[in-house]
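Class prep. Protein, please:
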Amino acid sequence: MKLLVTGVNGQLGYDVKNELGKRGYEVVGVDIDEMDITDKDSVDSVISTVKPDAVIHCAAWTAVDLAEDEDKIEKVRLVNAVGTQNIANACKANDCKLMYISTDYVFDGMGTRPWEPDDERNPLNVYGQTKCDGEIAIENTIEKYFIVRISWAFGINGKNFVKTMLELGKNHNKLTVVDDQIGSPTYTFDLARLLADMIQTDKYGRYHATNEGFCSWYDFACEIFRLASKYDERYKNIEVRPVDSSAYPAKAKRPSNSRMSKEKLTQNGFRRLPAWQDALERYLKEIFR
């Protein structure tokens, strides 16, 4: 099986390429220098030359607050919506599967019930809207697609909440973290293994894939410092205090409820990801090694 992975310089693309390579697949990894997804000709040329059996599309604009800037909105739309449409068109022309990595931000975050894959989409911010537009572009263009929504991603490559907390913890013994946004962390190493399993099948459609269990950002931060203290004494006595989101006004409105149901994975015979606490423990062991 020959696979093309976009966004290989990012957290997820990096892990997906490595996982597929470990399994012996022929993998071509691209980022903006090799294939500018906003350029239709670039996308058509690369995909028609590589002739993959499937494309795993991890590339995206993910700077959520920056996406709200007036001078960035069109760029975000070009990357997340137009770029995804370009890839969908090329996959259709070359008769290959497409897997699109999306987000919990396509939902409005109301209520407390975990979101089902086929629930109505109603994004709250520019990032969420453009990712939603990307989903719709795929659904309206091809039949052989997977849309996999994730949340709160962390991995070895790139920036994430865990690394931010560890950096802050080096110089601060008191931190405040929001406790009114609930969701699930996603370890990209674990997710990459699921995506590699999924892409081999024809069980197409929308899925949710995060590590098991729900928590607030505050809960997540507390566990980060508890586990990190095993490796570095500096993290032992950090006081983390819970606060409302109102304490951190942000340009982009965040969903309060990012709980997502993973039942569809079970129904289709896919192994769900381990508990987020287990994933975090393995991740910290890796980065403190």
Remarks:
- DSSP finds nine helices and 14 strands in the chain.
- The first helix runs from residue 11 to 22.
